[in-house]
Every structure is written in structure tokens, then in C-alpha cells.
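Hi C.,

You asked whether I'd gotten around to modeling the 488-residue construct. I have! Everything is below, sequence then structure, no commentary in between.
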Amino acid sequence: MGLSRFRAGTRASLLGVAVCVSSAVSWAESAPRTPTVVSGSGVNESGLYTASGDGAVFELPSRARLTLAPHTTLRVFPVPQALQLAPGAKTTTWSFALQSGRVDVELAKNGHSAVLASVGKLSAVVTAGHVAILADGDVTVANVEGEVRTLLADHWQTVPLGSLATLSRDNPSVAVKPGIPAPVLNGGQRMFFAANDVVAMRGFHWASVPGAEHYELRVRRLADGKVLDQRRATGNELSDAFSPVEPGRYGLTLRAVDARGLQGSWGPEVELRVIGVLLPPGGYSTAQAIFLGTGQQVQFTNTSGLEMTYLGAGRYFPAANGATLYRNTTTVVGFRLPGALDIATARLEPRGVYADVNIGPKRALWPRDAVSIDIQLKSKSGDEIPSFLQVVPKVTLGLEPLDVTFERNGNVLHAVVPPSSTPGPWVVRVDVADQYGVPLGHDFLEIASQPRAKAPAVRIVNSPPTPAAPARAAARPPAADATMASSN
């Protein structure tokens, strides 16, 4: 089909729209499967719809949506037309006539449907994407992110992405002009660590754009293109964080919006990388660091194509999947895209949680004293003890394990060991670990036997010798039956 014939056929169809405008029926009389208000509200008078102060949204049977700004007035036609918009089959086209305000048209690209907007002498045909149409004295068609052509008299023209076609006294030919330019990121992180499964990306700023009233930022997942978050900022930095995301690759892009609310085109997309962290049993992380036990290793995910380094290494090498503490001291690991200046660092620290073990009394004697065991969990940094951490004490008497019952009150455990009936001396040892077997602390106590009491001392006293009898008495013979007395 020749171009002149195509123009003539389309022009005749558009004239048919004008006839429909003059003879449109009211909404109450429209047939089923007609455009329907699905959000917001407004007033309908003889087919002329005026949105309320909250705006309104029409959904067309083709699934296209017309978003009306507050107090927008238009007429949406209940019956579609078959227009010859391209060589081949005709396109089912739903139409509306805008009198004042703003309408944002959003239409999935399927090649089978379109939306025709008429604003005075200017018409616009939207075949895909997002297009904004304004009637505020002048008439403006803005290609936000779609496909649109305008028609004035017999002149068709395509409006490129991010461009405007305005009919005004200063622009009677509706010459296409570029819209407001996109801002350019000039700082902020590009790589993040998701130490706790997800991370909220933040810290972006950009160069100001003349004429911009505010800016919009959008994050999408590169794996499937799904838009995950979109934010608005009035200055040239984003003060809030995006919604938390899992490890993966994401794209961030920005656009400027002028005082009329017309969006410019999205700027170049910047890749954001979120590195995942897989902790070993008993390891844990905070916003400041990743804490590991002696000899433990942390695993990193989503590091394909990255380079890594250790603080003080002085060079980069292909990223490894894991890292451990260097000599069980603070270790800093850095990741970057090859040749990039932006570096994401992870700080590895020895686990700061330990068990303060006390056994007493220190000069215990058995069987005189019962022995007390007190275990208190502490943090070297003063941080809160991780709630997941369980304490597993092991008590032995010499080489034999003891079955001891501990009572726990917060981060303190207490138990009593009664005296042993086995021969002493004895050694009571307490080893404390967590549920993963990572040592937390230990202590021991040597216990002596209580000395036995000595038997009382016995003193043998001899009787004094008998004094000598007088001479006259010695001459007297003893009686025959006298009793003999022993000196013992």
C-alpha cells in the first residue's frame, strides 16, 4: 500500500472518530465490555467524565489503562474502531477525546490494539508503552517509554523516546523536541554485601538537571527484568534506602521530571552487584563485621567475574568463593569489578563472644565444701550476645565426666558439684562450647582432702613412792590377813 493511500485511509478513520464524539452515548447505555473505571472516582455528565481530586483510572477491554490526573475532563468512547495503522490487518483501536488535564496511556505491545487520543486539531496514536498527553492551553504528547505517532492535518510524525510534540502558538507545526535530559550518577556504591540474606541498597547521588522539579530512581532485577522498586527524590541524592534485595545483579536508572510532571527518558542503566554471605555453623554477622570462630571460613556467592584482595596484599586476583581469618585476627576482604574504583569490603573478626568460667571456692576441701560453677557469656566488643547461641558446658572430675545440672538466668549459668566419695585429691574441669562445638572458655580447680582430726593425747602418770615406815613400826609383824596394795 502506498504512503498516500495509507494516510488517506487513516485520516478517514479519524474523521469517523469525530462523528462518534458528536453522537456518543452515555455510560449507562454503553454495551458490555466497555471501558470501566477501576480506580478513583469522578462525575459523568452525558458521557463527559471529570475525574475527582484523587484522579481516576480507566481500563479498556484491550487491557490498556488510562490514568487521569485530578480534575481531568475527557470523553472515552465505548466502541472501538478498526484502523489501518500499518500495512496488513487493521488494528482494534479504542479512542478518547481529551478536553483538559492529563492522561497517561499504558498499553502492552501486542500488535493487535492501539489507543487513539484526540485533543483539538492534534491526534496521537499509541501502539505500545507509556505515553503522556496534556491539554493545558497547549497540547503536548510526551513519549515517556512507549511508541506513539502524532497527526496534524495530513502530517504524521513519530515521537522518539524521551521527546515531546507540542502544539502551541510558538510551535504550530508540532515540531518534536527532546524532553528533559536524564541525570547521571556521580557517586555512591555499586557493590553491596547481603550479610543477613538481604541488604537495603542506599547512598546514591547524581548531578542536578536544569529544569528538573524532582527525580525518579528505578531498580530492576537483571535476571528477569522485573522492576523491584521505584523511588522519588527532590534533591540530587536518595536519602532513603531501596527495599531490601537478595544477592544478585540489579540495574539502577534515573530520570528527571519537569514542573509539569512530564518525565524525561531513563538514563543509562548502572549495574549493582549484591554479594551473598554463607556463614559457617556458629558464625554470625552484624552491620559492622562477620564474626568467625578459629579456623572457620565464610563463603561468598554471586562473585562471578569479580576481583578480590586482602587489606595489605597490594594486588587483586580472581575472586575466590571463601575467606578465613588471617592468623585469627581482623581480616578485611575487598571485591570489585575488574578495573573499577568502587570496592565492596567485608570485615572478618574473631568471634567476640566468650565464656567467663569461675569455679570455687579456690581453696576447696572435700568433703567439707560444695563446689560452685558459674559461667557468664560476655562479648569483647560489648555487643549483645546473639540469641541463637546456646551454651554447652562439659564438667569432668579427673578423667570422668560429671552429670551436672545448670540453672540459666539470662547469660549466666550456675551449678553445684557435691563432694566426691572417691579418694582424692581431685581436679574439677569445666569446658564450655556452643552448640556447634566452637570453644568459648574453660577453667579448672584442684581440690585437696580435708585432714582427719588427731586422737586426743594420753599421759601416763606414775604414783609417788610410799614413804618409809617408822623404825618401831617396822619391827611389828604384819597381821596374817592384812590386804596387799599394788603400787600399779
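If it helps when you're writing up: The chain is about 5% helix and 45% strand.

Thanks,
B.
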